[in-house]
Write a structure and sequence with these properties.
single chain, 171 residues, alpha+beta, Immunoglobulin-like, 2 domains, three-stranded antiparallel β-sheet, 8 strands, 23% helix
Length: 171
């Protein structure tokens, strides 16, 4: 007999495993909302931490407040936001707000049709090229308005899948 019960079961199990491997990427992308590109990440506010400059006047520490708007009908989360910060067009460096080592249920929730605020600390150590702008940032009382710009990518997660959202914002 060519097909015994054992062979039929074995062929069925192998076919099920192959089907799972082939269709798994499709199943995982279904869990992301179709309008994930409508999610907006923006820089809302930049604050100078006064205590940090009192300890070491050469280092300026900033708190960056990011706003994330989720217009989709699904609750999402973020695992990280990587960004570059500019002040008056001058690059200050790269920053990272990461929740990758936090379990999914502990990450910031981006609930459906709501806004969420995420805070990131950014430390600036002046160099020859950034000394003047860092002085302006540290002494905000000079009255000169600083134009902040951020360029980056946020990893947006939903269940088993993830998508990268690029953003650029200026305040």
């Amino acid at each position: 007999m060519l097909f015994s019960k054992r062979r039929i079961i074995l062929i069925g199990v192998v076919a099920a495993v192959v089907a799972t491997i082939v269709f798994l990427p499709l199943i995982l992308t279904i869990t992301l909302p179709t309008n994930v590109n409508n999610i907006a990440v923006r820089l809302e506010k930049v604050e100078v931490v006064k205590n940090a400059t009192a300890v070491n006047p050469r280092i300026v520490q900033l708190n960056l407040i990011f706003g994330v708007h989720n217009p989709t009908d699904k609750s999402l989360t973020t695992s990280k936001i990587e960004y570059q910060l500019f002040a008056n067009g001058q690059p200050l460096g790269d920053g990272l707000l990461s929740y990758e080592d936090v379990p999914v249920n502990g990450r910031p929730q981006l609930l459906s049709n709501t806004d969420a605020q995420l805070q990131s600390q950014f430390t600036i150590t002046p160099s020859n090229s950034t000394a003047e702008i860092v002085k302006q940032i540290a002494n905000q009382s000079t009255g000169k308005k600083i134009t902040w710009k951020v360029v980056g990518e946020a990893d947006i997660d939903s269940g088993f899948s993830s998508a990268t959202k690029s953003f650029t914002n200026q305040i």
